[in-house]
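Sequence design from tokenized structure. All designs in this work follow the same two-part layout: the structure record, then the generated sequence. An example of the structure record is given first.
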């Protein structure tokens, strides 16, 4: 809805009114360019996912660009549904989760 201030607002969870742009900027969704694997995504995976996802574990090694790209849609689905990482493992921040999803949506550039 428009509150007359020229700023678009909407009801969120039926109880709060929030500025959509505040949400977008706070999640880091708007960037000058799509995240790249080497610069943006690989460091997140190394810090938060490689305990399980590495060559020695028998799990898919998502620190490898080709493996991550081949599994991008599945990664996005698991992150969006918050089924990964599992409860007993290091959590992703909302910004990290959003960055990986944006990388997938943006074409998974290297």
């Amino acid at each position: 809805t428009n509150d007359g201030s020229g700023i678009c607002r909407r009801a969120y969870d039926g109880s709060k009114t929030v500025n959509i742009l505040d949400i977008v900027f706070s999640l880091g969704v708007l960037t000058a360019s799509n995240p790249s694997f080497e610069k943006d995504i690989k460091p997140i995976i190394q810090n938060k996912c490689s305990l399980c996802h590495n060559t020695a574990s028998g799990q898919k090694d998502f620190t490898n660009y080709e493996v991550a790209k081949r599994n991008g849609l599945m990664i996005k689905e698991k992150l969006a549904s918050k089924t990964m990482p599992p409860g007993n493992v290091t959590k992703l921040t909302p910004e990290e989760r959003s960055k990986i999803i944006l990388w997938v949506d943006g074409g998974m550039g290297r």
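Residues 5-13 have pLDDT under 50 and may be disordered. We note this feature because it recurs in several other targets discussed in the main text.
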